[in-house]
Amino acid sequence: MAELNILEAIRTAMDEEMARDPDVMVLGEDVGKKGGVFGVTEGLFAKYGEKRVLDTPLTEAMIAGAAMGAALYGLKPIAEMQFADFVYPAFNQIVSEIARMRYRSNNAFGVPMVIRMPYGGGVHGALYHSQSNEAYFTSTVGLKVVAPGTPADAKGLLTAAIRDPDPVMFFEHKKTYRLFKAEVPDGEYVVPIGPAVVARPGSHLSIFCYGYMRHCALAAAEVLAEDGIEAEVVDLRTLRPLDTDTILASVEKTGRALVVHEANGFGGFGGEIAAIIAEHGFEFLDAPVRRLTGPEVPAVPYHHDLEEWFMIGPESIAQAARDLAAY
Q1: What is the structure's pLDDT at 178?
Q2: So which residues are the catalytic ones?
Q3: Same domain, 48 and 80
Q4: Which CATH number does the domain housing residue 317 bear?
Q5: Checking CA distances to 31, which of 50, 53, 146, 198 falls within 20 to 30 Å?
Q6: What percent of the chain has pLDDT above 90?
Q7: Model confidence at 118, in pLDDT bands (50, 70, 90)?
Q8: Are residues 211 and 64 part of one domain?
Q9: DSSP H helical ranges for 115-232
């Protein structure tokens, strides 16, 4: 085991897969000599050279399109969107071409590539550097979408994503990059894409979350336990395909469901979880499904007071859970 933060775990996964498979390559803005704006790709350029670690122009559509072309020709590209907020110029490439290639080619071509997406607020990034836009991609058939919240999951899921024969959107919450360190298995380590994990067992209500919200939910659960409320925290880890079995099993156990995510509520990913529970787990419920999400404003504000108002944290999760438990 090694003690790594999430940033180091992501870098380790890329490094080990590049060493294992010469077809794995990295491309994106400033990923080369600079090592990325967050330092995630630091050292890879010196180790693997400019043919496998490519600095690109500030052109997201080209990054996605070039990665797709490389994947079609047998390489396994890891494309970095410097911030998830920057992905929109590449939207057509991703949802119309990358996601649909296997279907439109009648299974003749796969697109084995990863798009890394640093997302989320709480880092004083303001309007264009704080968005949580995962729902755009979970609604696109043909894409797998993962959002790890621990260093071990970050390494294991990225390794699985790189080896996957189809495109994977890999969401990395920027606030978790250096938030904490935890044990990560040395050497080859793969976490399958799909299964959720019960991060904390409980009996009074279920909290469904992913990414940074995992840490907030676990902190809230500790506070709730002092009040005699035992919350079960389910870290989804993979958003598509979604582990409906674990979700429904948790609701059957607790009878109450709180869905938490940082993005806006209307049209957000939490609505899909709520719909699944309502459709397939209604008989288990002792209270309506509740969502706790970011407020209905266009983006995370810059001013630190307003950013704090926007962000979900342990206190707001704990209060929402108390209200749900009391229903």
Answers
A1: 97
A2: 129
A3: yes
A4: 3.40.50.920
A5: 146
A6: 99
A7: very high
A8: no
A9: 134-138, 151-163, 212-226
